[in-house]
Amino acid sequence: MAGMLEGLDSIDWARLGHAYGTADDVPGQLRALASDDAGLRGKALYDLYGNIFHQGTRYEATAYAVPFLLELLGNPAAPNRADILGLLTSIAIGYDEQWLPFPLPIAAHREESAGGAELVAQSHDYAPDDLEEDEEVEEYAFLEELSDEDQNRYFAYIAVAAYDAVKAGVAFLRTLLSDPDLAVATRAAYALAWFPEEAADSIPVLSAATASDPVLSATSVAALGLLGSDISEAFLTDAQPLTRWGAAVALAQTHRDTTPPLAVTELLHWTASPDAADERIPFLNGDLSGYAAMAAVQTGPANADAAFAAMLARFGSMSGTASLPVTAAALQLAFPNGAIAPGTPFSALDSRQRQFTSRLAECPNAWLYNGSTFGNFSMMMSAYSLPNSREAMQSFTTT
Questions:
Q1: With contact defined as beta carbons under 8 Å apart, do 262 and 219 qualify?
Q2: Taking a C-beta distance cutoff of 8 angstroms, is the pair 227, 234 a contact?
Q3: The pTM of the whole model exceeds 0.90
């Protein structure tokens, strides 16, 4: 590892910000990722997820850290390369559940970021007379003075800058598809899925990777769908279930209402399956059922009833974060117009809406995370003006 990260000290990290203020702690964290001590590496990774990628938000320091993360990734002797690649992909896109089952809308993000560079430059010169010299305070004071529109431009520019910093390494990421470490190769395939502007060069190498290990094959096939490649329906009859899953979600993305019937059948199987999870597949952290449910919605009205029935069947065995994607897909089918009017009685719901609410009232685990009330699930119900606890849902559906 000698000679690694030599350029770290050439950056004025103290002038850059992250979630907790000045980014002068980032160089030490990046160096710790190369440590022989697994504990130090783990803490450094945790810290970087917390400061330059805080709950999905990227900061000015984020893009500056990316070349050094790529440098570490490029050294075969570096430990935890798959974890580093996972951080890089998160930096590029945030959380994939924000976008799936669709590709990343990078063109729209670039439009939203217009004018953001000037705002970031202004933030460097911002020094109000009534505040002491404190970079963290000054940065937040600057943002508070911006309009909501300009704040959106500011953070959109920061996010696109982070995305483009990772995009600069896409050609290198393609070479990792043949990495001897399967976890690295699989995460590389996943990462390539999110760079549609690079699709022309990524599709051939991803296509070659579909003849590999089932985990890499499934991830590559799903990635091809997100990049708009019309994959062969032959993948639907592959001997490996994971590859069939990847083919089904890919074909739903590219074919929508004309998704082949065999792909629809595969999606319904995975949607309803109580044990459809594989953490080796990076999409949705391995929630194959959740991704299949999202993709099933893409196949159009002709398959909506069957897809909805598969989702309701899954409700009985889901819990925790696995509850969110399937429930979101079911909500999309049951409440296509969004939230109902507050105070709407159960009797005023249509048939599919009554099925949805009645089924959730029967499924206690769907409302829980590790045995406790799952706030994210409750908020999802509230967003549709539905009862936000199981007890309230039971009462709602029986009165």
A1: no
A2: no
A3: yes
